[in-house]
Amino acid sequence: MLAKGTPTSLKEARTATFPCALTIAGSDSGGNAGIQADLRAFHAYGLHGCTVLTALTAQNPRGVRAVHVAPPAFVAAQLDAVFEMYGVRALKTGMLATVDVIEVVAEKLAARPRVKKVIDPVMVATSGAKLLADDAAAALAERLLPLATVITPNLPEAEVLLGDEIGTAADVRLAAKTLARKFRCAVLVKGGHSSDGAAEDVLYDGRRFCSFTCPRVKEPVSTHGTGCTLAAAIAAGLALGTSLGDAVERAKNYVYEAIKFSYHIGQNCGVLGMPKRR
Fold first, then answer.
1. Active-site annotation holder among 223, 229, 237, 252
2. Is position 223 annotated as part of the catalytic site?
3. Tens-level pLDDT at each residue, the chain (278 residues)
4. Which of 15, 70, 150, 245 has the highest count of CB atoms within 10 angstroms of its CB?
5. Domains of the chain, with CATH numbers?
6. CA of 135: how far to CAs of 64, 91, 97, 138, in Å?
């Protein structure tokens, strides 16, 4: 399905404004996560995707071998170039790596209050590799998270932001509400790291809770990049004018389908599938 407003004729193509979303994140050399996963999600939603690279990584599904962080001035230049010309309706952030990068991103995003912002507080890769410097968590919480429309921490990230352990379903709801009040934004706590049978995510938008549950895919070929993909899909929904709750629900289903239809692309290596256009 084409995005609302997508040109269907040559005349419309020359006069219409096409929906646009932005990802501010690191690059995955294997093409599974990061910027590459975000662009796949934007494309599936029928959106044009703009990119701001914060870091280059040498990685595959087994782990991150090396990271090269972009100079903050270059990150700022990319942001200026995108916002100067492109009608960005929504954005998502991923790997920001350092205090300096976080601060320049926060400064630029604070000047764009009308743009919907999905902040994924990426701290550690599933493989265990650190994607955020030790001294950067405080800067992330103080400078960037209060600018968010919604933040999307997984359980370990939520525990870091909360400063406490999350053990039960009641704890997850309390964590979402506490973080929402702390950062004055909606919070989606992702339950994918839970050991329970179903992957349940809990959204608190400042007024009410919504729960989103999908069955776990048995023995999936790949789950690498699911966090990036979910945040990007939420941003895509918001860019298309969807309400936050509906955007999360559609994104959750999109990720489920991507896992379900993941496929092999090398020896013991897989990638998330590409569901039909949303």
1. 223
2. yes
3. 445 555 566 665 555 667 899 999 999 999 999 999 999 999 999 999 999 999 999 998 888 899 999 999 999 999 999 999 999 999 999 999 899 999 999 999 999 999 999 999 988 766 556 667 778 889 999 999 999 999 999 999 999 999 999 989 999 999 999 999 999 999 999 986 555 566 689 999 999 999 998 888 888 988 889 999 999 999 999 999 999 999 999 999 999 999 999 999 888 888 898 876 65
4. 150
5. 17-152+222-271 (3.40.1190.20)
6. 20, 25, 10, 7
Q: Does the annotation mark 126 as catalytic? A: no
Q: Phi/psi zone of residue 34: left (φ > 0), alpha (ψ -120 to 50 degrees), beta?
A: left
Question: Which residue is catalytic, options 30, 191, 225, 237?
Answer: 225
Name the one residue in this structure whose structure tokens are 């205090």: 99
In whole angstroms, give the CA distance from residue 226 to residue 239.
Answer: 20
Q: Single out the catalytic residue among 228, 229, 237, 252.
A: 228
The answer to whether residue 167 is catalytic is no
pTM, rounded to two decimals: 0.91
Catalytically annotated residue among 108, 116, 117, 190: 190
Is 190 known to be catalytic?
Answer: yes
Burial class (CB in 10 A: 0-12, 13-18, 19+), 266: exposed
- Spell out the residues 6+ positions from residue 119 whose beta carbon is closer than 8 angstroms to its own: 92, 93, 144, 145, 147, 148, 150, 151, 152, 185
**Catalytic residue, candidates 191, 227, 229, 252:** 227
How many angstroms separate the Cα of 150 from the Cα of each of 74, 93, 146, 164, 263?
A: 26, 11, 9, 21, 31
- Residue 225: active-site member: yes
152 classed as catalytic: no
